[in-house]
Amino acid sequence: MSAVVSLGVGKLRYLDRLEPKNGDWPRWQVCYCGICKTDRLLAWSTGTEGLVLGHEVVCRDGRGHYYALNNEINCGNCDYCRENLTSHCRHLYELGVTHHGGFANWLSAPPHSLYLLPLRDARLGMLVEPLACAIHGVERLCIALALQQVAEPRILIIGSGVAGKMLAHLLYHRVTARLTLCDIDAEAMAWARNMSIKCRSIPFHEHYHVVIECSGGQGALALALSAVRRAGAVMIYGIPDSGEALPISMRDIFNRELTLLASMAGCTQETFSEAIRYLEQHQAFFATLLGRQVSLQQLPGELLHNAPQAGTRSWVTVTPQ
Ligand SMILES: [Zn+2]
Ligand SMILES: [Zn+2]
Questions:
Q1: CB burial string 114-128: b at 16+ within 10 A, e below
Q2: How far apart are alpha carbons 157 and 271 in whole angstroms?
Q3: pTM above 0.90, yes or no
Q4: Hey, which bits of the chain come out as E strands?
Q5: For the chain, N or C: smaller number of CB within 10 Å?
Q6: What's the gap in Å between 263 CA and the centre of ligand 1?
């Protein structure tokens, strides 16, 4: 039994005699676990001492079936759950965030939180959780799109990391719009040209009906707000730095009649199941998102000090197959 445990801000340790448990839930063998920005932020935050992180998990049962974990365990009874806003459940357990997650050989989780993977390559199951969040993001974006009076709105996506790519891919296949992707790294955008998505390093000024900020970078929201046209909408999707204030005055929001919205998490039963179906249809695209692979022993250094290769997800092989 081995696991990587947080020992406080910026400290992670590999331990080879630890079986992290979450109450009485059954245990599952962890095969792979993605490393995302949330993990990197948590590793440098207070309040994670003694916790096993990792929430983009692929497990296997005793019969050799592979499953993706929906790490949000909700109560099903509170007002948010009844409105299907389960990410805001008043009694939410988040494996890998508030309870032990997937950076360990074994994970204890309720059976209903595991979704059977019908994929040829089970590693792609690590992308189900971030894709379910992106599907939730597109659902929220459609509310903002309904405010626009044009048949083909111009949509700008800032940042072509994994989140930006997933959102661009979903919008390309599901929404009638003129899509532009913006990133400072030309190579990071190269994939989008094959799909006739326009690429720019600097967006046009006050030009887009809707802008999605996916980079979480400093100053990126100011760029989004300068790129959106009057009566347009800006969605915050990338995790902003804590303490970063809105770079716009209330008067400007009012005068330009802007809509601001955000999308965070959103792994409901529906988005999770839909993410698996979508992944199954587009396995070749999602395979290109798998980046650097490390072992559980290498994870502390990777998580604390290495950025992912542009536009890909780094990941851990927890149990060699
Ligand atoms: Zn994540
Ligand atoms: Zn609830």
A1: bbebebeebbbbbbb
A2: 21
A3: yes
A4: 3-6, 12-15, 27-35, 56-60, 66-69, 72-73, 93-94, 106-108, 114-116, 154-158, 178-182, 198-200, 208-213, 228-236, 259-262, 290-295, 313-317
A5: C
A6: 13
Q: What angle separates helix 128-145 from helix 162-174, to the nearest 10 degrees?
A: 50
Q: How many CA atoms lie within 13 A of 319 on its CB side?
A: 19
Question: What does the alpha-carbon distance between residue 71 and residue 54 come to, in Å, rounded to a whole number?
Answer: 9
Distance (Å) from CA 39 to ligand 1 centroid: 7
Rounded CA separation 281/276 (Å):
9
- The fraction of the chain above a pLDDT of 90, given in percent, is 85
Angle subtended at Cα 318 by Cα 315 and Cα 320, rounded to the nearest 5 degrees: 110
Residue 260 · residue 236 · CB < 8 Å: yes
242 to each of 40, 103, 152, 161, how far by Cα in Å?
14, 25, 35, 20
Q: Domains in the chain, start-ordered, CATH in brackets?
A: 3-116+289-317 (3.90.180.10), 132-262 (3.40.50.720)
Q: Residue 173 Cα, ligand 1 centroid: separation in angstroms?
A: 23
Helix H, strand E, coil C: the string for 301-319 is HHHHHCCCCCCCEEEEECC
**49 burial type by CB count under 10 A (0-12 exposed, 13-18 middle, 19+ buried):** exposed
Each residue of 207-252: pLDDT tens digit?
999 999 999 888 999 999 999 999 999 999 999 988 889 999 999 9
